[in-house]
Amino acid sequence: MTLELREVVSVDVPAPLSKVWAFLRDPALVRRWYGWDHDGLDAECRRFVDTAVETQDVVGDATIHTLSWPHHDKLTLRSAAHEPHRTHLTVTRRSHEGMATFDGVRDEVDEHWIASVHQLQFAVSVHPEQDRRTLTMFGLPSGDRHDRLLDRAGLVGIRGVPIGGHVQARRPDGTLLGGTLVYETPLQLGLRLHGISEMFLVLQETPAAHTPPHGTVDAILSTYGLDDKTFGEVHERWSRWWQMAIPRGSSRVSSA
Fold first, then answer.
1. What CA–CA distance (Å, rounded) separates 237 from 251?
2. Of 1, 21, 46, 203, which residue is least crowded by CB atoms under 10 Å?
3. Helix, coil or strand: residue 150
4. Integer Cα distance of 148 and 22 in angstroms
5. pTM of the prediction?
6. Which of 61-65, 179-183, 207-211 has the lowest mean pLDDT?
7. Domain extent at residue 228
């Protein structure tokens, strides 16, 4: 019986396959894009080396490298001979049929792959030589439809911005934030932020069915090339931004 796989996320990375492959096989490079900073991140990065099975092949004019895991998650890189400086990256996973952990609304592992693959695309194409430091906020209350967190954060109408479109937000403290919308899914947004250094912001929404009464938002900011003083300033502004944006009567659920 052939296992049915489904595509979770697919992106084009403007870099040769060999370079993208290195970011999947060297734990120090995996750390520049996968997940976010926490005590267990190094162990998570090791799974790209310790538990993944790699294959390499040439089909027609395309070079194909894959990583796969025992639970059937599979990451495929494909590069055509006529486009040697572009790599197509796809993540596939087993069908949801029969999976007790999927409720028909949100698959946590899917959401993690979607965010991480776009973070990889950003790291390789924008900051390939720099290590990453992240800032995160988890479990921020979404607020009801009359008092939404993202609206209070200055991101009013962001769902109406086309991919590649410009986003300009005025944060609650009056400071401006400019960026480009990189991707959008029903439960996620990815923004390339412009400023002293290009940064990447992922916003993930958890529906009310999972986290009553109105759902929550997770925010992950990847920064590169900032000295300690500048990173501290960004951290302070980041914390103030979300604390001031929390809907009235709510409190932050968790942060990291």
1. 18
2. 1
3. helix
4. 41
5. 0.93
6. 207-211
7. 132-255
